[in-house]
Amino acid sequence: MASTSYSTMSYVLLLSLFLSSIMVTFAGNLNNDFEITWGDGRANILNNGELLTLSLDKASGSGFQSKNEYLFGKIDMQLKLVPGNSAGTVTAYYLSSKGSTWDEIDFEFLGNLSGDPYILHTNVFSQGKGNREQQFYLWFDPTADFHNYSITWNPQRIIFSVDGTPIREFKNSESIGVPFPKNQPMRIYSSLWNADDWATRGGLVKTDWTQAPFTASYRNFNAEACIWYSGASSCASSSASSASSSWLAQELDITGQEMLTWVQKNYMIYNYCTDTKRFPLGFPPECNTS
User: Fold this and answer.
1) Which residues are glycosylated (predicted)?
2) CA–CA separation, 149 vs 204, rounded Å?
3) What residues are annotated to the active site?
4) Is residue 14 pLDDT above 70, yes or no?
5) Phi-psi region of 59 (alpha: psi -120 to 50; beta: other; left: phi over 0)
6) What DSSP element (H or E) covers 165?
7) Are 167 and 263 in contact (CB under 8 A)?
8) Phi-psi category of 115—alpha, beta or left, where left has phi over 0 and alpha has psi -120 to 50?
9) Coil, strand or helix: which one is 48?
10) What is the pTM of this model?
């Protein structure tokens, strides 16, 4: 046991030393970090790069992606979701690599009828396989104002947080045969689209197009991360200044664990690790770890 802990600490220390000179912090003008990828004018970067909006109407949704790829980091973005009757709409905000064995870390916000809460859907894909969904209600109205949604991704764990409160932790369980996203750089993507075949009450509630256009807003992007340049064998930085690498070995302290427990006790509405109908022969191995 002591030997394993020492090896893990040594790995983290070496990786920290390697990355400490190549991590940079990005914040500010969204024009510098993102590009509109689809939507035919339904997506816009406004106010000199301070605000980004995505819109959905009956003809099409819209989306954007980051200009950079990242390999580990702490990614923050403030979102204000579609207000009013958003049933049938999905606002997806996620990290993803490419290819048939892609990795992915998901926030998806499933719209609902006016007055009913959004469902925050999370998932983790590794080597092209997901099926690790957890879903939550939020303890505030995510359409009334901007709130910060954060992904901390390092070699040991992935932490999903909302306004600094951890809601989910997915640990590296490669030692028991569970793939973990750690070798493929990922871009940030977001899209607003119509999914009324499944998004709201399993597709029972359809999108009310008289409420269109539906609009979600983004601001205050920040990334403490390692940029991956295509074709390079390691990360490289375009900035001479380096950022703090505290996220590289970040884990939940006692307060963070208590907050996580509070959220999962009071606001979690689905956990794949308790779905006996879906896994009648036994849960995935990571569900049995502490």
Assistant:
1) 112
2) 28
3) 104, 108
4) no
5) alpha
6) strand 165-171
7) yes
8) left
9) helix
10) 0.88
Helix (H) or strand (E) holding 54: strand 51-56
Report the distance separating Cα 225 and Cα 245, nearest Å. 8
What is the C-alpha separation between 54 and 36, in angstroms, rounded? 9
Residue 255's CB: how many other CB atoms inside 10 A?
9
CA distance 272 to 282: 11
Strands 119-125 vs 134-136: parallel, antiparallel or unpaired: antiparallel
Beta carbons of 246 and 25 less than 8 angstroms apart: no
Write down the CATH number for the domain with range 25-288.
2.60.120.200
Q: Going by C-beta distance under 8 Å and a sequence separation of 6 or more, which residues neighbour residue 148?
A: 76, 77, 78, 161, 162, 163, 164, 220
Residue 80, pLDDT above cutoff 50: yes
The band of 249, judged by pLDDT with boundaries at 50, 70 and 90, is confident
Please compute Rg for the chain using Cα positions: 19
**More confident of the two residues 267 and 22:** 267
Give the mean pLDDT of 243-257. Answer: 82
Residue listed under structure tokens 């709201």:
200
The per-residue pLDDT for range 189-223, each reduced to its tens digit, is 999 999 999 999 999 999 999 999 999 999 999 99
Q: Under a CB-based contact definition with an 8 Å cutoff, are residues 250 and 84 in contact?
A: no
Instruction: For residue 205, give the 3-state DSSP assignment.
Output: coil
- Per-residue pLDDT tens over the stretch 157-183: 999 999 999 999 999 999 999 999 999
Asked whether 200 and 113 are in contact (CB, 8 A), the reply is yes
Nearest Cα to 156, choosing from 142, 171, 174, 176? 171
Burial grade of 161 (CB within 10 A; 0-12, 13-18, 19 or more): buried
Q: Per-residue DSSP letters for 81-125?
A: PPPS--TTEEEEEEEE--STT--EEEEEEE--STTSPPEEEEEEE
pLDDT of residue 289: 80
For the beta carbon of residue 191, count every other beta carbon within 10 angstroms.
22
